[in-house]
Design a protein that fits this description.
By secondary structure, the protein is of the alpha+beta class. The protein contains 15 helices and eleven strands. It folds into two domains: 98 residues, 2-Layer Sandwich (Phosphorylase Kinase, domain 1), CATH 3.30.200.20; 233 residues, Transferase(Phosphotransferase) domain 1 (Transferase(Phosphotransferase), domain 1, Orthogonal Bundle), CATH 1.10.510. The strands form three sheets. The chain has a six-stranded mixed β-sheet. The longest helix has 30 residues. It is globular and about 70 Å long. The relative contact order is 0.14.
Length: 380
C-alpha cells in the first residue's frame, strides 16, 4: 500500500510541475506585453471611437451633478466613494480609476462600462454614467449600503447563516441566468463582487473580466481569466491548452462563493494563488467544512462543483433546485447595520485585527483576491 501511495504522489508531482510551468509561461506572455503590443491590438482610431462611445458627457458635468461624501473602499487600482446626486439627492457610488494605471486596468474599466450599459436586471449593478478627466476615469453606479459579501462577514467576524446564503445565491443565480441568456459570461464571481443593498437586493458587480459569446465565442473560451481561488478547473486547464470552457465556469465560482460564505474564506485560501491553481484541477471538488448544513444545501454545492462541466447544471436549472422551495428573502435583514453609512472600507483596517484571526485577516486582504489573470481578448 505504501509503495502504491508513493507512486501516486510521484505522478501527481509530475503533473503539478507540468501545470505550474504552463501557468508560469502564460503569466510571462501576459506580463511581458508592453504599450506597443497593446496599441497594435487596439489602434488609436478604435481607442478614440471607444472613448466617444462610452464617455458621452464631459467631466465638468460630473462636478455639476455630484457631491462626493466619503471614501467607501480603497483598492490597488481604484477607489470607490459615496456620492450625492444633487438634482435628486439620491445616494450613488462612483468608482475612480487613475488613468496612470496600466492599460489592462483601463481596458477592463471600459469593458465594464460598455457591458453594464446593456444589462438591465434587478440583481445586476446599475450604471448611471461615466466621465473622464485629464487624470481619472469616473464610473457612477447605484449605491449598495450593505457592502460586498466579504466586507459583511469580515465586519461581523462571522460567516453567514444557511438561510442568508440561500437568499444570496438565489439572487446571484437570477443575475447569472439573465446575463447568460444574453451571451455574457462574468468570469469573476466571488464575495468581493457581490453587493447587498438595504432592501435586501443582491447585486452582481464588476464585469471587467466578463466575456461576450456569439461570433467571438472561440476567443472567449480560450481566455485565461479570473481570480485564482474561485477559478473553475477547466479555466486553469485551459492555460495548459487542455480544455475550453463556457458559461458554466460561473456556476463553479458560485459554488466556491457559497463555501466562502460559510467559512469567511474560499477553499485553499491558506495557499499561495499559483499553488492553489495547481491543486484545483487535480484535487477532489471542495466540500463544506462541517456537517451542520442541510442535505439540500450540500447537494446544491456538489452540483455547482461538479468537475465535469458538461454535467454541471446551468443557472436556469439550479433556480429550480429544491433548496429554494422555502427560501426566506428577509433572512438578510439582520446583516444591515445603521452605522455602516459612516463606515469606510480600507485595506489599512487589517492592522487592527488580532494576529490570531488569521482566516479573517486573509478574507479582509483584498489585494490577495484581486490577482486576476488577464489576456488582451478581454475587449472581445
Amino acid at each position: 500500500m505504501n509503495i502504491y501511495l508513493i507512486f501516486l504522489m510521484f505522478l501527481l508531482t509530475k503533473y503539478l510541475k507540468k501545470t505550474w510551468k504552463n501557468i508560469e509561461s502564460s503569466f510571462k506572455d501576459d506580463f511581458e506585453m508592453n504599450v506597443d503590443d497593446i496599441n497594435t491590438y487596439m489602434d488609436m482610431d478604435k481607442r478614440a471611437s471607444m472613448n466617444e462611445e462610452i464617455l458621452s458627457e464631459p467631466f465638468h458635468r460630473f462636478e455639476e451633478l455630484y457631491e462626493i461624501s466619503h471614501l467607501l473602499f480603497k483598492g490597488e487600482f481604484s477607489e470607490i466613494f459615496k456620492v450625492i446626486h444633487k438634482p435628486t439627492l439620491e445616494t450613488r457610488a462612483v468608482k475612480v480609476i487613475s488613468l496612470h494605471n496600466n492599460e489592462h486596468v483601463l481596458l477592463a474599466a471600459y469593458k465594464e462600462i460598455k457591458i453594464l450599459r446593456e444589462l438591465h436586471h434587478e440583481n445586476v449593478l446599475r450604471i448611471y454614467n461615466a466621465y473622464k478627466s485629464d487624470t481619472k476615469l469616473y464610473i457612477v453606479t447605484e449605491y449598495c449600503d450593505g457592502g460586498s459579501l466579504n466586507q459583511i462577514y469580515s465586519k461581523a467576524q462571522a460567516p453567514f447563516s444557511e438561510k442568508q446564503i440561500v437568499s444570496i445565491i438565489y439572487q446571484v443565480l437570477k443575475a447569472l441566468d439573465y446575463i447568460h441568456s444574453l451571451g455574457v459570461i462574468h468570469r469573476d464571481i466571488k464575495g468581493p463582487n457581490i453587493l447587498v443593498g438595504k432592501n435586501f437586493k443582491v447585486k452582481l458587480a464588476d464585469f471587467g473580466c466578463s466575456g461576450i459569446t456569439g461570433k467571438e465565442k472561440n476567443q472567449i473560451k480560450t481566455s485565461f481569466v479570473g481570480t485564482p481561488y474561485w477559478m473553475a478547473p477547466e479555466v486553469i486547464q485551459n492555460a495548459s491548452g487542455l480544455k475550453s470552457y463556457n458559461e458554466k465556469v460561473d456556476i463553479w465560482s458560485l459554488g466556491i462563493t457559497a463555501i466562502e460564505c460559510t467559512q469567511c474564506d474560499p477553499p485553499l485560501a491558506n495557499l499561495a494563488p499559483l499553488r492553489a491553481m495547481c491543486i484545483i484541477p487535480v484535487a477532489p471538488s471542495p466540500t463544506l467544512a462541517s456537517d451542520n448544513w442541510s442535505p439540500e444545501f450540500i447537494d446544491f454545492i456538489n452540483l455547482c462543483l461538479n468537475k465535469d462541466s458538461d454535467k454541471r447544471p446551468t443557472a436556469s436549472e439550479l433556480l429550480r433546485h429544491c433548496l429554494f422551495e422555502n427560501m426566506d428573502i428577509s433572512a438578510l435583514n439582520d446583516i444591515y447595520d445603521e452605522n455602516w453609512d459612516s463606515w469606510s472600507w480600507d485595506e489599512d483596517d487589517d492592522e487592527n485585527l488580532d494576529e490570531e484571526d488569521s482566516s479573517l485577516t486573509r478574507s479582509r486582504t483584498e489585494s490577495q483576491y484581486q490577482i486576476k489573470l488577464i489576456n488582451l481578448d478581454w475587449w472581445q
